[in-house]
Write a structure and sequence with these properties.
This protein is an alpha+beta fold and about 450 residues long. About 70% of the residues lie in helices and about 10% in strands. Helix 5 packs antiparallel against helix 6, helix 8 packs antiparallel against helix 10 and helix 12 packs antiparallel against helix 14. The radius of gyration is 60 Å and the shape is rod-shaped.
Length: about 450
Amino acid sequence: MATPSALGLLYWGRKALNVPARLPSWDRWLRRLWQPAAVIVGLGLVVGGPVLNWLDDFFLAAMLALGVAVCWQLRAHRPVLFVGLGLLPYAALQLAELLLQAVAPALLKRLGGLDNAEGLSFAWMGIFFLVARSQHKAQQADQELRLAAEQEQRAVESQNQTLEYEVGQRTAALAHQTNELRATLQELQATQDQLIQREKMASLGELTAGIAHEIQNPLNFVNNFADVSQELVTELVEERARPARDAAAEAEILADLRLNLGRIAQHGSRAAGIVRGMLEHSRTSTGERAPTDVNALCDEYLRLAYHGLRAKDKSFNATLETDFAPSLPLVEAVAGDLGRVLLNLLTNAFYAVQQRQQAGEPGYRPTVRVQTQAGAGGVVVRVRDNGTGIAPEARARIFQPFFTTKPSGEGTGLGLALAHDIITDGHGGTLEVASQEGEFTEFTVTLPAAG
């Protein structure tokens, strides 16, 4: 009977073409064909006869036709080609057998049927069904690889989107932090400018206190000589009004007047110089250098710094020592900036000796010494005091901004830092310190000579 063969073709064909997955609606009907096939086989075993042979042949033909329809539906599927090639010899043999039974049954009987040929066709069909099955598995493996690649690609894209989002969030956070840091930097710069201005105003206040005392002396001389001169003028007028004028007396009065006017001019110039120095110290530096007499500058700011401290503490006294080199060469300097440096060094020196004096050390005499001398191609200024000295760990940071050895509220920590910048950056010189704690401190300023 051909019905079992048709069922076998149905089973292997479904597997080779993956009909359950590709044509599920067709597969539902194909899975039910075993029922009529079982009836035909059962009748064939029990009854037999030509009618059942005809049903058997009809079932086989129907299976072949159904297989052709399924292959046509799945024509785009590569394994269909191998299934079709496998079915072709078997279908041709079945068609030939049906034709011979109808046209020449005697010939078919003489040939003994086509069983041998059918066996070969089954072998042929099995080989091509295996190839189709292999093709299907290969395609399924390729599909799984593509699916895996697509899933991996989607995972990568999802990860990229996540990374892009995180990068965006991080970038936004960094931008926010950058804006905060920029704002903080601007605040720090504003605060630094305020502290620098405060340091300048503090030094200006110390300078003003010294000026108030220093300028009083020449003003007193001016007032005194002006009063004496006024009296001499009165005497001269009275002498000239007398009937008998005394030429010698008039000449003596005029000589005294000339002398007094010279003294008034001298002390007026002194007062004007002090005021001019104060104005130069207080105004913003233009950065223009000019030949400067360092000896005169040191002498002026030594007295101003000393009287500035005495204006705060009337009980303070110190010995001022000067050793100014004669014929000292002029230096190219901004006088106002160089005056700020000297005022800061001298103010610190007087503060150090005052602190040691207040400690009550027996036999201690506060002394501040200023020395100038010509160096190799320049001028050297030394400011030395016998005050409290500076500890070694503090000397290493003495020129750092905002570092101070004074108690809180008595210093900003910018004075020496600004002095160092003015000397090194502004004038191309050097500023060095030597000290022994409890003994002395000496600052050495080296400036290049003019020209």
